[in-house]
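Reply to dn_fold:

You asked what the input looked like. This is it:
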Amino acid sequence: MSAITHRRVQVGGAPTPPPVTYSIFTSEVPASTTNIDGAPNIQTASAFWSDVPGSITHLRFYQNTNPAGDETLLLWRIDGAPAADTRTFLGSVTALAGTTVAGAFNAVALAVPIPIVANQLYKVSRYNSVGRYVFTAAGFAAAVVNGPLHGAADGSNPTGAGAVHNATFEQPGAPPDGTVYPADSHTGGSACYFADVVFLPA
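and this is what came back:
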């Protein structure tokens, strides 16, 4: 009987590396993380765009060091001039109270990734049911850039559609069901409230 030899064969070459994703914020963290407005239904937001098409796979936010309440994250497309507040609601996810990590970024997966196109303004908002938020004053005085993803500088006109005010802090007074938009307001100067996304280029 002839001997049986075994040899290990690697099929398909080297393992496929994981896809590269991007978020608006990398090393940036809020200067103030213990804010309690005292009123429910606080909605804060970040306006952004990408140089390339792709998909938003998660919505992301920096959690307070004293978290409370449910967190609903919403994604919008800005249609036309930002000041006109014309928009399309694209989707949302909710992180229930007690399920997030305090004092850190939390990313919540969308049920289905949402495609976005290049050079189009979008807005991601964070809605906290009991008035928690974080911020850095003048955090959007200049654009925040990570690879193809850009957090728009407050007052800039990055896509030619008109100036965008990137300091949204509002009390919509209604549940976050996609009908109450975080309007293009200037209530916070150029403050940054650390609403974010996870973006996968096409």
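The radius of gyration is 20 Å.
Hope that clears it up.
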